[in-house]
């Protein structure tokens, strides 16, 4: 995780602030206000630093030079304790690859050649001499390389003012020795306020910089201004001191008594605003309210109320009763936790979560713990790299019918390569909840297999309806505005690119072109084979000929998702059948990247299928533009393609609007897979198939049905799932989706198929002995993958079958996209005179029954004519 530094420099200290030893330089409070500290760690002080971080992890943002540590355990412990970044010898980088951006190389010297060691995660150059003859070349080289996270530390005794200047020229983050800095006017030391004021950019003639004042929970109290002098005073006095635009220095609270204790100063991402975090005594605003933007709300307001109830509660206060009755509070917390787990609708969940937070915060405030303390604990946890297994504890697991064997009972997993699972880390196990059908009821199973709840239909409609209305009213202008908002593509000036698409937009590596071409051809072959070669014709009675023939839908709009992942394969799955069907106008739509461009693979596919245009928009705005048309987006007759809940809801909405006159394919939402595996299945294959859909998004769900698996086999699959998941770049998404994914244990294939047909999965994988025979039992599924050599991803990309499939159980009534999705069928009747005589009586009699005389006459008039 790469974060913006609170300030554009680090303060280097010999020992952690406040742990003694530092006789000179900034004191503990001063360093704490600045936040970012840098230590050179040596083996004897590791323990000391770890203890220090245990207490102050969020107060200081620590960066460590660990080149003198040999023990990998020590380095990992520092990361676990909250080190934002550690710098290691370049040759040891591969040892720490799994920690990504939190580990960067460290080198020494002033020559430009040291920059060759830089990685995408940064570089530390120590012992840099700003006066050396080589410095200018290093500056030039670092500028041409556009290095990111480039930290630079001067040689001992360097002129710091000059060093800061050179570092700025090199776009490097200077590491400044605490001993050379001062928060008070002191000769021979560089004033921190001066470094800060030289770093900020003020666009005001008086040079003041806007300063947002917030409390420890981040609630904005007001907006003020700062100068170099006021920041110097604030740092010196450790209080809120600002620069009034009319009255000079402003010591907040000097007259009102509502003073502030300074907690932290930081600059924003582009250095044009300061933030002061303060502990506010009394209130900030001159009006009767906490801050200039009004009163606190939500959890912060709750904390304020609880604190005041703790000090003096009115007669009969329930909160006061909770403070004094420990057992009651304990019972209420458990009661509310259970109610939250049982809540069904989003409204219920919000209601119950609010109740639980009230009782939890009452417990915290009662124990003297503030919201800021809780947030600090959350933040500290977010930096951890060693995780606990996260399994439910004994009585709770039992209560929920979790039948998975406990970790202790599990046979030791095969040792994994060091880069994937280092011995000193115990990452939280990524595992699915298991249900044994011999022990759970059908209702319990139904509950477990419920797809992760999406926002309620009403809530989504409230979001997408105004978007659709805006696009209908304002056309291109509205589409662009939403693209600017959601995709942040603010440079985009037209929502469409039209064919012929310039070559420059589809520059791709040869291997990608080859992969697209191979997949294109397989998809084309399979969909072309679905074409009816001639009209269907049946003579239902002598002289009565009924026919059915197909015609392509003239204009189709194909939505290619692009929110969490760009999916050029979906462009193939929709574009190729549209082309094969002969649709005259093919319009693609996909969210552009933030620079306004569209992924070249999509442009290449659009070109190959002969698309008319690409709409550079996503979500409801793209759907509305294609449904109603705008100045530059062509109106289409049918919209196809998967997408998130906003896309799906917008498709449903426009298809219900008769003014739009547009059809849709089906509800195709978050990807899902159900794997049925027996004793013969390879655990690694099973796990890889589950993960291939789990990585789509946190709202995806994957299900494993194990047929007659013994405990060892199940554990093998679970170990594989965890091991493979941990090595995935999208492990965080996988954690989210696996959290609501399940394993179901059954005895027979028939039982497995019964459950699968009821669930109606988008993808069904049969990793079973004689898998082919089991296909006869499939009643509901989007697409089936048969046997151990058929991973689902072949269907996602290249086998030829379509991957745009019904999810959420809609496989019970919808087919996936196929050639038929792009054509409509027209029927015709052709009768001879004999034919009309043969069928005429039946028609006339039924018309008589319906009392539709004109219908009857259309036949009788002809029969009479024949009889004349
Ligand atoms: N079933 C299938 O056949 C199939 C195939 C491929 C992908 N998928 C699924 O498609 C989905 C793609 O979703 P995605 O989000 O990555 O991309 P997406 O393109 O469907 O959605 C992105 C768009 O959502 C809109 N949006 C996002 N947040 C919004 C908000 N708060 N309010 C209004 N609009 C908002 C924005 O306009 C954005 O452009 C995934 O769930 C994936 O699993 C399904
Ligand atoms: N599995 C998705 C259908 O649910 C399609 C896809 C696209 N890219 C990878 N997979």
TrEMBL record:
GO terms for cellular component: cytosol. Residues 407-420 have a biased composition (Low complexity). It catalyses: L-histidinol + 2 NAD(+) + H2O = L-histidine + 2 NADH + 3 H(+); 1-(5-phospho-beta-D-ribosyl)-5'-AMP + H2O = 1-(5-phospho-beta-D-ribosyl)-5-[(5-phospho-beta-D-ribosylamino)methylideneamino]imidazole-4-carboxamide; 1-(5-phospho-beta-D-ribosyl)-ATP + H2O = 1-(5-phospho-beta-D-ribosyl)-5'-AMP + diphosphate + H(+). Keywords: Amino-acid biosynthesis, ATP-binding, Histidine biosynthesis, Hydrolase, Metal-binding, Multifunctional enzyme, NAD, Nucleotide-binding, Oxidoreductase, Zinc. Residues 223-293 form the Phosphoribosyl-AMP cyclohydrolase domain. Pfam families: Histidinol_dh, PRA-CH, PRA-PH. Its EC number is 3.5.4.19, 3.6.1.31, 1.1.1.23. GO terms for molecular function: ATP binding; histidinol dehydrogenase activity; metal ion binding; NAD binding; phosphoribosyl-AMP cyclohydrolase activity; phosphoribosyl-ATP diphosphatase activity. It comes from the Eukaryota. GO terms for biological process: L-histidine biosynthetic process. InterPro entries: Ald_DH/histidinol_DH (IPR016161), HisE (IPR008179), Histidine_synth_trifunct (IPR016298), Histidinol_DH_CS (IPR001692), Hstdl_DH (IPR012131), PRib-ATP_PPHydrolase-like (IPR021130), PRib_AMP_CycHydrolase_dom (IPR002496), PRib_AMP_CycHydrolase_sf (IPR038019). This is Histidine biosynthesis trifunctional protein. It comes from Echria macrotheca.
């Amino acid at each position: 995780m790469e974060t913006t530094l609170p300030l554009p420099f680090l303060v280097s200290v010999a020992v952690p602030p406040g742990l003694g030893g530092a006789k000179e330089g900034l004191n503990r409070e001063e360093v704490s206000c600045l936040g970012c500290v840098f230590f050179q760690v040596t083996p004897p002080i590791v323990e000391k630093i770890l203890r220090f971080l245990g207490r102050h992890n969020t107060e200081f943002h620590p960066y460590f030079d660990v080149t003198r540590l040999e023990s990998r355990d020590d380095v990992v412990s520092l990361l676990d304790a909250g080190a934002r970044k550690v710098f290691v010898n370049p040759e040891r980088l591969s040892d720490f690859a799994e920690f990504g951006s939190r580990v960067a190389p460290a080198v020494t010297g002033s020559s430009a050649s040291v920059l060759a060691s830089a990685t995408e995660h940064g570089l530390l150059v120590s012992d840099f001499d700003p006066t050396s003859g080589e410095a200018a070349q290093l500056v030039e080289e670092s500028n041409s390389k556009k290095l990111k996270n480039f930290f630079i530390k001067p040689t001992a005794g360097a002129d710091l003012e000059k060093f800061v200047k050179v570092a700025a020229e090199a776009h490097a983050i200077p590491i400044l020795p605490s001993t050379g800095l001062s928060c008070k006017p002191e000769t021979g030391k560089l004033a921190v306020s001066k470094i800060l004021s030289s770093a900020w950019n003020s666009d005001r003639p008086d040079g003041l910089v806007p300063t947002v004042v917030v409390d420890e929970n981040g609630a904005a109290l007001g907006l003020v201004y700062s100068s170099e002098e006021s920041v110097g005073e604030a740092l010196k006095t450790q209080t809120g001191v600002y620069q009034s635009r009319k009255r000079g220095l402003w010591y907040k609270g000097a007259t009102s008594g509502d003073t502030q204790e300074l907690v932290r100063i930081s600059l924003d991402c582009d250095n044009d605003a300061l933030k002061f975090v303060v502990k506010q005594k009394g209130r900030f605003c001159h009006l009767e309210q906490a801050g200039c933007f009004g009163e606190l709300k939500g959890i912060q307001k709750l904390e304020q109320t609880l604190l005041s109830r703790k000090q003096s509660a009115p007669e009969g206060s329930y909160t006061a009763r909770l403070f004094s009755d420990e057992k009651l509070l304990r019972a209420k917390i458990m009661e509310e936790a259970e109610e939250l787990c049982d809540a069904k609708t989003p409204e219920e969940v919000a209601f119950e979560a609010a109740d639980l937070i009230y009782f939890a915060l009452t417990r915290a405030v009662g124990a003297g713990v503030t919201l800021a303390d809780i947030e600090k604990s959350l933040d500290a946890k977010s930096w951890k790299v060693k995780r606990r297994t996260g399994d439910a504890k004994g009585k709770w697991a039992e209560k929920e019918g979790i039948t998975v064997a406990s970790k202790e009972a599990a046979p030791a997993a095969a040792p994994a390569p060091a880069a994937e699972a280092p011995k000193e880390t115990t990452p939280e196990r990524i595992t699915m909840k298991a249900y044994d059908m011999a022990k759970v009821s059908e209702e319990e199973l139904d509950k477990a297999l419920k797809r992760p709840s999406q926002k309620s239909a009403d809530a989504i409609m409230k979001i997408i309806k105004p978007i659709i209305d805006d696009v209908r009213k304002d056309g291109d202008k509205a589409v662009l505005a939403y693209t600017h908002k959601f995709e942040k593509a603010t440079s985009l000036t037209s929502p469409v690119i039209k064919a012929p698409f310039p070559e420059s937009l589809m520059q791709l590596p040869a291997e990608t072109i080859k992969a697209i071409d191979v997949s294109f051809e397989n998809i084309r072959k399979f969909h072309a084979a679905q074409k009816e070669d001639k009209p269907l014709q049946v003579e239902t009675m002598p002289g009565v000929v009924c026919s059915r023939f197909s015609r392509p839908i003239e204009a189709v709009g194909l939505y290619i998702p692009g929110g969490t992942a760009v999916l050029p394969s979906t462009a193939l799955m929709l574009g190729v059948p549209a082309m094969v069907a002969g649709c005259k106008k093919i319009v693609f739509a996909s969210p552009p990247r933030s620079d306004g461009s569209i992924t070249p693979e999509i442009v290449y596919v659009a070109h190959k299928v002969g698309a008319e245009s690409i709409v550079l928009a996503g979500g409801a705005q793209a759907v509305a533009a294609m449904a109603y048309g705008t100045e530059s987006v062509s109106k289409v007759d049918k919209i196809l393609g998967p997408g998130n809940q906003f896309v799906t809801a917008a498709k449903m909405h426009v298809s219900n609007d008769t003014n739009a006159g547009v059809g849709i394919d089906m509800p195709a939402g978050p990807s899902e897979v159900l794997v049925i595996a027996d004793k013969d299945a390879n655990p690694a294959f099973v796990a890889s198939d589950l993960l291939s859909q789990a990585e789509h998004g946190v709202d995806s769900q994957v299900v494993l049905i194990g047929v007659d698996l013994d405990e060892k086999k199940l554990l093998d699959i679970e170990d594989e799932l965890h091991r493979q998941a941990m090595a995935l770049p999208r492990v965080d998404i996988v954690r989210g989706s696996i959290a609501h994914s399940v394993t179901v244990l059954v005895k027979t294939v028939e039982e497995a198929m019964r459950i699968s047909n009821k669930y109606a999965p988008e993808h069904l994988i049969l990793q079973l002995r004689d898998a082919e025979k089991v296909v006869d039992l499939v009643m509901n599924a989007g697409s089936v993958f048969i046997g151990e050599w058929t991973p689902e991803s072949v269907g996602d990309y290249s086998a030829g079958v379509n991957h745009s499939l019904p999810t959420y159980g809609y496989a019970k009534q919808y087919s996936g996209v196929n050639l038929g999705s792009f054509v409509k069928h027209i029927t015709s009747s052709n009768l001879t005179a004999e034919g009309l005589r043969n069928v005429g009586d039946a028609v006339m009699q039924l018309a008589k029954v319906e009392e539709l005389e004109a219908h009857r006459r259309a036949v009788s008039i002809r029969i009479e004519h024949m009889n004349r």
